[in-house]
Amino acid sequence: MSTLLLTHRACLLHEPGEEHPECPDRLRAVLKALDQEDFAGLIRDEAPQATLEQLCRVHPRNYVEAILGIRPAAGETVPLDGDTIMSQGSAEAALRAAGAAVAATDAVMRGEMRRAFCATRPPGHHAEPSRPMGFCLFANAVVAARHAIAAHGAARVAIIDFDVHHGNGSQACVERDPAILYASSHQWPCYPGTGEAREKGVGNIFNAPLSPGADGAAFRAAWSGTLLPAVDAFAPDLLVISAGFDAHARDPLAQLRVREADFAWLTAELCGIAERHGRGRVVSLLEGGYDLEALAHSTAAHVRVLMRA
Ligand SMILES: [Zn+2]
């Protein structure tokens, strides 16, 4: 069965400013990489906009409406915090990023596609229920997980987050929800400061902090040792991956030394768990990754495994 690639040109029009690392060129680099011949087999479609109902399964209505109400004039920006900045195109980009997560979930849960990758921005895993943060406006992975449960009757969804930063937002959204497991490896100490191993939610949160300088072997050991067994034991009906590639050795925002082959290895392990418990269903969402070359190569390695594993 096929792998779906969802994206939308509106995601290029979220422009947080010239010096901002979360820039439109990131998505251009990813899309260029996925234009190579290896990826001719991807089924490509445009990301729809998420609805208020879908977003309000995760965020309070007044938060969603406040974010969508921020529409700066052309060329102007509105900072929500030190590094989360909205431009004229940001609201639609955020709706497309969350909408891609929903549409990917629909396609995979209906059995039309086995896997889906959403090449979208802004990312989502730092967005808390009522607070934008860390380049993120809506918690896209949690929107996908809640949609799988509400619209498709999934009993258990696992959110897998290998972005180098802890997904404080995703964790905050699900830490009292036993139907959703959240498993993350991340550099610690590092932004945003959360993600210690003792943060366990209602027994559904699994954090594996990694020291600055940790390499691919340490990354694989964290997943093999604690995180993957927890995900496997949870027996999820669907895996939602927060696929950030800023744990890569070349990334300028953190100090881990993970490589493309490590991302490919973890992707294959996750596909194996999905096969055992969830008919192979995997939805993957682009999160961080700020060295354009490393981001392009790592995304290609990840999607290649999604297509074949
Ligand atoms: Zn990150």
TrEMBL record:
One of its GO terms (molecular function) is histone deacetylase activity. Residues 20-306 form the Histone deacetylase domain. This is Histone deacetylase family protein. Pfam families: Hist_deacetyl (PF00850). GO terms for biological process: epigenetic regulation of gene expression. The lineage of its organism: Bacteria, Pseudomonadati, Pseudomonadota, Alphaproteobacteria, Acetobacterales. Belongs to the histone deacetylase family. InterPro entries: HDACs (IPR000286), His_deacetylse_dom (IPR023801), His_deacetylse_dom_sf (IPR037138), Ureohydrolase_dom_sf (IPR023696). It comes from the Bacteria.
